[in-house]
Amino acid sequence: MSADLIVGLQWGDEGKGKVVDLLARDYDFVVRYQGGHNAGHTIVIGEQKYALSLIPSGVLSDTTKNIIANGLVVYPPALIKEIEQFGVLDERLFISSRAHLILDYHIATDKAKEERAKSGAIGTTGRGIGPAYADKISRVGMRMADLLDPQSLVKKIKAHFAFNEAYFKDLGIGEFDEEKYTKDIEFFSQKLSSYIVDTRSLIYEQIKSKTFLLEGAQGTMLDIDHGTYPFVTSSSTVAAGACIGTGLSPKDIGKVFGIIKAYATRVGNGIFPTQDDGEDGELIAQRGKEFGTVTKRKRRCGWFDASVARFAVRVNGVDEVCLMKLDVLDGFEKIKVCTHYELNGKKIDDFVEGAVCVYKEFDGWDKTQGLTNWDDLPENAKKYISALEDLMGARVSIVSTGPKRSETIFR
Ligand code: IMP
């Protein structure tokens, strides 16, 4: 069988969690393939709230098994806390022995580098993501498999501190605390060892007869290669990253669902062509509750950027688009969409210094909030969606009209 894929088409926070939650029950396995606890969403089911950062959203469906695959960087205390929300997850959660560990020195390095960079800071989540991936690429990372032998891991960490002594001292990371690391690693090992497996073999075996949903984190414009570098995260957030992050081949990928909001947001620094610093942007932020679930930072808000969307549809090979948070635009008299960029009067693909956004205005509508039928959408909302489809070059198959599972239109 093949593996379907969910990918964010903007700068993250598109609402992937809701879509995975909606679709997960139709799949036997849900797999996270990149990123770490920089991602995060809260899912509300009845009175119960679940905060998920590392565990795939399939955990909320009793019949779905969940995999944290090799492409992730895992901070054990965050994962242990998440697992505890569900008691234990034996036979429902599998963690790749090849996933890399985030340890306290990665977090300290991330924060120290950001502080030192001052105005040039990336605006990271401060979760140690960049330094952990940097160690992976430098071939000096520690992996989940290392947790199976705590004593050897502590020795490796000690050697890592010794090798980086001058660098760590300069950044103010502090000295190696053997007692603390020994205690921590033994605890992580005790809590997590039973979940650690060769997920690649598991996936190869199971994909013969079972269905898979691959859950991307962050979004296309935060991709290390294809995003707004250097203001990006440190992993491959695009669809192709799913192969690297799981061990699946491109031939295993089935349908690609692209998740996009009806407007745009970005958290952290870096270019954001359609940002609206006026009343409209503020209204979108308030109505869309655009505050980070991980860092609580206020997100920058603006209008739908069709140039970004076109690129994201292309680079990810999107089959179907899920248009999220349409209801946030309810009540706007006019809604703007950036159709393309121009530099000195010429159409360009990538936004550069001096370029401008060219906008088209659409008439607004009264209310879409809570609608569940396509036919009930106001005509202007349908026109808006249809224009986005033409601009993106992809069909919208799901429209979200509110945070609840039920507030969804399947077209
Ligand atoms: P890092 O991933 O913590 O290194 O942060 C790098 C950039 O990615 C920063 O601009 C973060 O705000 C952004 N970022 C990381 N994770 C997310 C996410 O889940 N949603 C939105 N932005 C994110």
3D architecture notes:
The protein contains twelve helices and 20 strands. Helix 3 crosses helix 4. It is globular. By secondary structure, the chain is an alpha/beta fold. The structure holds inosinic acid (IMP). The site of inosinic acid has 20 residues, from helix 4.
Largest sheet report: 10 strands, mixed
Chain oligomer state: single chain
Gross morphology is globular
Q: Please, what is the average pLDDT?
A: 96
- Poorly predicted regions are none
Give me the secondary-structure category.
alpha/beta
Tally of alpha and pi helices: 12
Order of the strands making up the biggest sheet: 9-7-5-2-10-1-11-15-19-20
**Number of beta-strand segments:** 20
Task: Write a concise synopsis of the structure shown.
This protein is an alpha/beta fold. It has helices at 16-24, 76-84, 104-117, 129-137, 150-163, 165-171, 178-192, 199-206, 241-246, 279-287, 306-316, 379-392, and strands spanning 3-8, 29-32, 41-45, 48-52, 65-68, 73-74, 93-96, 100-101, 196-197, 212-215, 253-261, 264-266, 300-302, 304-305, 320-324, 334-343, 346-348, 356-363, 395-400, 408-410. The site of inosinic acid has 20 residues, from helix 4.
